[in-house]
């Protein structure tokens, strides 16, 4: 069960959220029923409205989990205008390991392997950050958010979270450029799903892992901004010192240098990986 955070507490918590640039105050979370939940149900949603040819990069909604939830799958609620969605936990100093979920244009649902689940504790604060973008000449409205697939807690033996492997800075001059970033893990963890993420200038994405000195390619394909999917990965165990490398190729068609950022007119390069156990450390 979920309750929305009071307005005063919400304002106090906003500076701590990851990727915060601006905030909105409309929209309500959809509560989880008091009865034993099962199947797909909304976890958190946010209603929004955009003027023609406008965008908001950090439209926020905060909720507090009232009773423990176990999720065996997760998917976005993403009507036209939803550029990306980030769901994060905590109200302190946010970091990559606190991100619960991320999605982009065209992201599919993700079901976790049997026995693997995401635990959301009673009292946990969740922040939904939406980047919404209206390219049309008419006003646009919608409700975006995240749904989870409820599972029986007794069926969960491993808990999941996310590893974000990629640079926090980019500088892309006009023309083609390939950027590579290597993340060295510090704790044992098992990877099972990959979400490659760039923006509109991205043309190719490659993710490799180096395990015990041997390199394995997880993904190597052209990138399509309109089809950002979670890709299942045969579970692979990383030990401390093993590495994840994200290699992104961009073609900057503008006359200006494009930097890292959240807007559709800026860029990112992240291998977003689901893993277990939760709390496996960052890069």
Instruction: Tally the helices.
Output: 1
Envelope shape: flat
Query: How much of the sequence is in beta strands?
Result: over 45%
Give the tally of structural domains. Answer: 2
Nearest-integer average pLDDT = 84
CATH architecture of the largest domain: Sandwich
Low-confidence stretches: 1-36
For the secondary structure, the number of strands is 21
CATH topology of the largest domain: Jelly Rolls
Task: Report how far apart the termini are.
Answer: 33 Å
**What is the gyration radius calculated from CA atoms?**
18 Å
What share of the residues lie within helices?
under 10%
**Structural class category:** mainly beta
Characterize the biggest β-sheet.
Answer: 6 strands, mixed
Please write the string of helix (H) and strand (E) elements: EHEEEEEEEEEEEEEEEEEEEE
Q: Class of the largest domain in CATH?
A: Mainly Beta
What does this structure look like?
The protein is mainly β and 283 residues long. The protein has 2 domains: 2-156, Jelly Rolls, CATH 2.60.120; 161-276, Jelly Rolls, CATH 2.60.120.230. It is 2% helix and 53% strand. Strands 2, 4, 7, 8, 10 and 11 form a 6-stranded mixed beta sheet that branches. The chain starts with a strand and ends in a 7-residue tail after the last strand. The model is unreliable at 1-36 (pLDDT under 50).
Brief descriptors of the model:
283 residues; mainly beta; Jelly Rolls; six-stranded mixed beta sheet; 2% helix; flat; disordered N terminus
